[in-house]
């Protein structure tokens, strides 16, 4: 009888120790999982902080800008044409995103071609002409800048606006393209001049 009591007490103690051991093991596993989870979360946060590091973005921007300036110096016409095309295309996509539900990719590509083939090369040639022939005021840079802005607004700006209107109209309605040029060129030129001339000077 005493032997049975001892065996029952031993079995009970053994079960209790097993349960306690299991609970302790589960706690240890839980602590490890939480520790690993915190470490993983810290790694993710470190990666996010690294990717959003302002210094890294500034460095990347400076590298890209330096490459652009070197390309502008060695291949000015090609660089201006390509950058003009990119700006026209991206600008049109943004404008369509604001004013339309869907973006017309064909129109954006059409304006990208305009920037590359028309606006960029003509701008390059025009400013070279200005540098060579529009020299007013000698060392007075403000007077010379005002003169160049004035000549640009009177001579080049109307032609570039007319070319832009005609380019867009040609894609949408070939027969009515000239009528749209006559109808819209002056209004767009006047609006652009009212904004750009004061800000340029």
The number of E-state strands comes to 0
Q: What general outline do the C-alpha atoms trace?
A: extended
Characterize the biggest β-sheet.
none
Radius of gyration: 36 Å
Q: Report mean pLDDT, rounded to a whole number.
A: 79
H/E topology pattern: HHHHHH
Please identify the structural class as seen in this structure. mainly alpha
Task: Give the helix tally.
Answer: 6
Low-confidence stretches: 1-8
Q: How much helix, percentage-wise, in residues?
A: over 70%
Q: How much strand?
A: under 5%
End-to-end C-alpha gap:
112 Å
Walk me through what this model shows.
The chain starts with a helix and ends with a helix. The chain is mostly helical. The protein has 6 helices and no strands.
